[in-house]
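Record minuted for completeness.

…
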Amino acid sequence: MRAARCLRGPDIEPGKKFITQTVTFNTKDILTLIMTKQSLKNLTVQPSELYEDKLAQLELIINEANRVRNTDKTMIEGLLGNFYGRTLNVGIEFKRAYGSILSGDYFNLTELPDGNYLFVFADLSGHGLPAYTNLIRLNSSIILAVRESERIYCKTGILDTSDLIRDITIKFTDIMEELNNEEFASVLFTFITNQDDKFHLKFYNHGMFFPMIIRKFRDRTIDVYDLNKSEKGWFPQKGYLMGCALRDILGDKYYLCPCCEFTLYEGDRALFYSDGIVESINPQTGEEFGEGRIRDILIENVHSAPQETIDTLFRSLYGYIENPHNQKDDMTSILIDFPLVR
């Protein structure tokens, strides 16, 4: 039996206390400290010792949050480092919404008991600690469901992808309902199977953007597929957002999530991205960054390494919104070069 390899994080409950080193906060404390720090920037007088103490405490929690995120990034890069016996070349970046210490964006690669992989890319509603807490609940649901699929696989030799997605959805929704939490999750589940020079992708999409695909040959762009559009024989389909309020409304239809399949080839490049990137606003024009600009950056940087391309994308994003204060949502993007496997 293979052990599922999943990104884990601390178990934090909204409204409960968040402990970092010797300082204890709850959600309201964190928001108060952030506002205090921002307001103190405009003072011309020396802040009181009370405020200095609060600022020192805020710096502790920010440093701890950054440490956790850097550790998470290292763990994800490690998970992507053994993919069918090859190392995936990836570019990763995630930026929190301005004023948020933690993020609700989530990504994870899990090796399944049949030797194939499940890549999960998700966006939990809200920002900061509440969104991060629901992220942990989603991660726990995935871990439990994959463990159950391992037991079934050991007995039957069968791994049913639709059953696994349904089990994850049930577990996450039950947790949210038990806690009377009406937030929701947008999740893209991607099952990856290798066959010779091809990678077969099976998507179960609960409300996320599909990836963009760059088809390459000898570092030259052959074609671009925006899997969010119906074109070139591809027809994207999605299920519902994941949350207990929707289940209450939809009943059994809530669990319906069509499977879409797409084939990648060796050397193809796939960009997964959250809505915070697409919906970033230019303050002068009010126009969104949009998918067209993402596509152009991918084409212009086809010769660059994945991390260099991601860095270019985020430089362009921050230039577009002009000021980090204008970042209203978490922004996450992962660019994967699919390796030669023969």
Q: What stands out?
A: The radius of gyration is 21 Å. The CA atoms of residues 65 and 285 lie 34 Å apart. The chain has one domain: 18-337. Residues 49-79 form the longest helix (31 residues).
